[in-house]
C-alpha cells in the first residue's frame, strides 16, 4: 500500500528590507557586508562575515534580476518568476522610486538626456549620494517624465496609476515633471539656497492655479493657461491707482506691523508694487515665465531682505496688498478680480516659501 501525499513546492522570494535599502542607496556588495557586519557586532548577534556576505550576494543577484521588472512596475505584479507578497512588492516599488531631496535638487533644471546621465559627478559631490544612487534617480525621473509628459489629465494621478507609487511620492515626481515641462530656471547661483522642498511647494501652487487643470479635466495640468497669462497684462491698471492702493494697504497694516516694517512699507511701496505688477505683466512671454523664480528673487525678495522684513509681517503685507486691490473699483470695472486672485495666490505662496532670512 502506498500513502498518497500532497506535495507543494514553492520558490517564495524572501527580501531583507535592510539589504534592499543599502542596495537602493548605491552601496556595493562589499560596502553592504561591512555595514551589516558592523551593525551585527553592535547588536551582539554574532553573525560571521562569511554568512553575511553570502546573504548579501544572494540578495544583490536577486535585486539585479528584479530591477528589470521595477522599471515597469506593472510587470512586477504580472510576472510569475518571483513569488512575492503584495506588501513586499509595494515596498520594492516605493523604495526603488524614492527620491532623495538633495539629489533631486541637483537634477532640477538639467536636461534629461543620456548625455547628461554621464555627467552626474557634480550632483554626487554636492548631494553626498553615491553615483549609483544618483543614476538610479536620474533614470527614474527621465522614465517618468517621458511616460507622462504627453498624457492628458492630472499628472499626479497618471504617475500613480502608471508606476504604482504612493500619492506623496507621485506628487514629488509631478513637481519635477512640471518644472521640466515648463523649463523653469532653477540652477542659477542665486537660487542655490533653495531646496527641492521649496521648489516643490512653488510648483504645487503654480500647477493648482495657473495651469489648465483648473479649467476642466480634459486639459493638461503641465500646460500653463495661456489665456490667463495674457489677461495678466491688464493688471498694469493697478499702477495708475498706486496712491489709492498704498493708502488702503497702509491703513489696514498700521496697527499690525512692527514700526520698522511699516516704515519700510511707506517708503518703498512703489518699489514693491511695481515689482509685483510688473512681473505679472510679462509672464505671457516664454523667457519671462522660465525666469519666474530668479525674477521673484531679484525683484521682490532681495529688496524685502534689505528692509529686514520678518516673515510674519511679509505674510500680512501680501494678504493686505491682495485684499485691498480687490476693494478698488479699477479691478471690478475691468473684470479682473479673479485674475488678480489667481495671480496673487501663487505669488504670495512662492514669495513666502522662497523668503529665507
From TrEMBL:
Cellular component terms (Gene Ontology)? nucleus
Superkingdom in the source lineage: Eukaryota
InterPro entries per the UniProt record, alphabetical = FIBP
Q: Which Pfam families match?
A: FIBP
Q: Which PANTHER family match?
A: ACIDIC FIBROBLAST GROWTH FACTOR INTRACELLULAR BINDING PROTEIN (PTHR13223), ACIDIC FIBROBLAST GROWTH FACTOR INTRACELLULAR-BINDING PROTEIN (PTHR13223:SF2)
- Which organism is this entry from? Papilio xuthus
Write down what this protein is called: Acidic fibroblast growth factor intracellular-binding protein
Amino acid at each position: 500500500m502506498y500513502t498518497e501525499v500532497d506535495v507543494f513546492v514553492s520558490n517564495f522570494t524572501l527580501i531583507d528590507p535592510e539589504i534592499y535599502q543599502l542596495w537602493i542607496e548605491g552601496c556595493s556588495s562589499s560596502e553592504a557586508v561591512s555595514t551589516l557586519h558592523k551593525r551585527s557586532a553592535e547588536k551582539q548577534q554574532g553573525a560571521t562575515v562569511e554568512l553575511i556576505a553570502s546573504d548579501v550576494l544572494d540578495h544583490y543577484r536577486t535585486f539585479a534580476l528584479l530591477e528589470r521588472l521595477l522599471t515597469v512596475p506593472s510587470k512586477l505584479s504580472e510576472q510569475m518568476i518571483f513569488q512575492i507578497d503584495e506588501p513586499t512588492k509595494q515596498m520594492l516599488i516605493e523604495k526603488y522610486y524614492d527620491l532623495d531631496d538633495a539629489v533631486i535638487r541637483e537634477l532640477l533644471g538639467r536636461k534629461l538626456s543620456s548625455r547628461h546621465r554621464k555627467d552626474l559627478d557634480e550632483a554626487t559631490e554636492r548631494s553626498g549620494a553615491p553615483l549609483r544612487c544618483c543614476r538610479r534617480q536620474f533614470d527614474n525621473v527621465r522614465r517618468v517624465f517621458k511616460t507622462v509628459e504627453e498624457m492628458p489629465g492630472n499628472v499626479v494621478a497618471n504617475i500613480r496609476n502608471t508606476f504604482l507609487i504612493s500619492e506623496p511620492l507621485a506628487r514629488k515626481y509631478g513637481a519635477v515633471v512640471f518644472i521640466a515641462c515648463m523649463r523653469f530656471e532653477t540652477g542659477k547661483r542665486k537660487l542655490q539656497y533653495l531646496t527641492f522642498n521649496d521648489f516643490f511647494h512653488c510648483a504645487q501652487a503654480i500647477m493648482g492655479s495657473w495651469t489648465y487643470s483648473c479649467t476642466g479635466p480634459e486639459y493638461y495640468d503641465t500646460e500653463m493657461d495661456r489665456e490667463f497669462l495674457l489677461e495678466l497684462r491688464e493688471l498694469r491698471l493697478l499702477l495708475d491707482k498706486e496712491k489709492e492702493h498704498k493708502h488702503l494697504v497702509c491703513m489696514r497694516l498700521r496697527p499690525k506691523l512692527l514700526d520698522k516694517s511699516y516704515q519700510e512699507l511707506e517708503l518703498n511701496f512703489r518699489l514693491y508694487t511695481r515689482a509685483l505688477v510688473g512681473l505679472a505683466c510679462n509672464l505671457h512671454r516664454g523667457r519671462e515665465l522660465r525666469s519666474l523664480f530668479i525674477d521673484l528673487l531679484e525683484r521682490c525678495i532681495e529688496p524685502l531682505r534689505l528692509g529686514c522684513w520678518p516673515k510674519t509681517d511679509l505674510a500680512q503685507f501680501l494678504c493686505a496688498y491682495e485684499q485691498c486691490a480687490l476693494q478698488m473699483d479699477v479691478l471690478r470695472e475691468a473684470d479682473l478680480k479673479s485674475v488678480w486672485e489667481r495671480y496673487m495666490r501663487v505669488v504670495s505662496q512662492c514669495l513666502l516659501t522662497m523668503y529665507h532670512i
